[in-house]
Amino acid sequence: MPKKPMTVLSDAPVGQTLRIVKVDGGKALHRRLRSLGLTPGTEVKILQHRGRGVVVANEGNRVALGGGVADKLLGELID
Q1: Confidence (pLDDT) at 1
Q2: Is residue 20 pLDDT above 80, yes or no?
Q3: Looking at the predicted structure, is the pLDDT value of residue 79 above 80?
Q4: Is residue 34 helix, strand or coil?
Q5: Closest Cα to residue 21, out of 7, 34, 11?
Q6: Mean pLDDT of all residues in the chain?
Q7: How far apart are CA 14 and CA 44, in angstroms?
Q8: pLDDT in tens, 28-66
Q9: b/e for 59-73, b at 16 or more Cβ within 10 A?
Q10: Residue 3: its pLDDT value, please?
Q11: Is the pLDDT of residue 2 over 70?
């Protein structure tokens, strides 16, 4: 099975759906993202770029992430 391409959320194009595979951060960031419903295995759709930050849709919710956080979330592209 071929490996799916991966990227950080801040580099993903608008309209792209990704599955979060890794969070490159400490306990506080993991806890904050978990409270927002953004954990490894979660699928998100990129709705908008705001500088390096992004607005993503997750299970009917919209979440704005700053560039520092978006750069720490690695996702695999979903067709």
Answers
A1: 62
A2: yes
A3: no
A4: helix
A5: 7
A6: 94
A7: 11
A8: 999 999 999 999 999 999 999 999 999 999 988 999 999
A9: eeeebebebebbbbb
A10: 78
A11: no
What 3-state class would DSSP assign to 40? coil
- If you ran DSSP here, which 8-state letter would residue 67 be given? H
User: Tokens representing 34?
Assistant: 């978990």
Residue 68 and residue 28 in contact, taking contact as beta carbons nearer than 8 Å: no
Name the token pair of 55.
């607005």
Q: Do residues 17 and 44 lie in contact, with contact meaning Cβ atoms separated by under 8 Å? A: yes
Cβ neighbours for 40, distance < 8 A, ≥ 6 positions apart: 20, 21, 22, 23
CA–CA separation, 15 vs 46, rounded Å?
5
Query: Do 45 and 53 meet the contact criterion of CB atoms below 8 Å apart?
Result: no
